Write the structure tokens for this entry.
Amino acid sequence: MNSRRWMALALAVAMGLFGWLLMRAPKSEPAPVAATDLSSSYSCRECHPAVYAEWEKSFHAQAYIDPLVQAPEQANNFRKVQCLPCHAPAPVMDHGIGKGARVVERVAFRELGVDCISCHRIGEHMAATRDWPDAPCRPRANADLSRPDLCAPCHNQHETVDEWEASSYAAAGVDCLDCHMPPVERTRADGDTRPGRSHVFPGAHDVEYLQTSFEIATEVTQDGEENPVLVVALTNSGAGHNFPSDARHRAVDLIVTLVRPDGVAVPARESRPVGQEPGTARRRFRNPYRNEDLRLINRDRYGRENTQVQAGETVTLEVPFDPGDVRSARIQVIYKLTPLVPDEEGMNLYDREIPL
């Protein structure tokens, strides 16, 4: 056998021996991923930049630093300590979820408000839609993450979850996430996409979102004396709970201003509280504080103390007018985060003038 054949045979034997040794060698485990610090949501930014950026725009992120919350008539810079648990909550899942659960305030990173840790942390890992054991925060699938029970400890303080449960939305299986966390497309590190949910949490501070909550309809009828009456109907057609909901200081004002042929507004026929002066006629929708006289006024006028518009409910404001003295009516719906401010400081959700 010539030298070239000997060399080929030796090479083949060597390669076979090398392969056998590789197969016999002990398998090395991948290096473990270092666990991330779960004490605050600052740790979430690197791995979840898109979600973190969405959350930063939300009022969950501003729940502690919002000047309206800090104001004397509200939390008074959190001297009203009962406000702290829901504006800077410790991990909700650690303390129980559901309407009867107690919310506990955290002692650090309160400036982050209602953050990733508040809703996702459970023990020493994070609740997620799927298991991902190799990720630094050790996500584990947890169905509670998508249930209204997770929202209830804070958002049922003023019975919002109760309102939802009594609505047709709950019966149809439409819950908090469907409206407040709409689907979005997420991009993975490898460029592939996956479904996710927005963390902007649109709500009472978002004009366009509020405008989807209701519809306005008008008609002209006659009263018993054949005098014309403008009937303005407001229907809660888009909120799965009362409108407005949650905090007692929120208010919605339906305003009708009759306009004479010369362009001058017809004044109100009665005196009104501060912040409700303009308009020929007005109707306020609100759940007043327990010591407010408005509760008695509402009971006498509307038959119930809480005049929030329930899901699917239609309420009306009837305004009689003299057709010879009125050319049109301006109809407005103004949302107020605090009830005593003038109309111009509220959010004008609807503003139309119709001929009469």
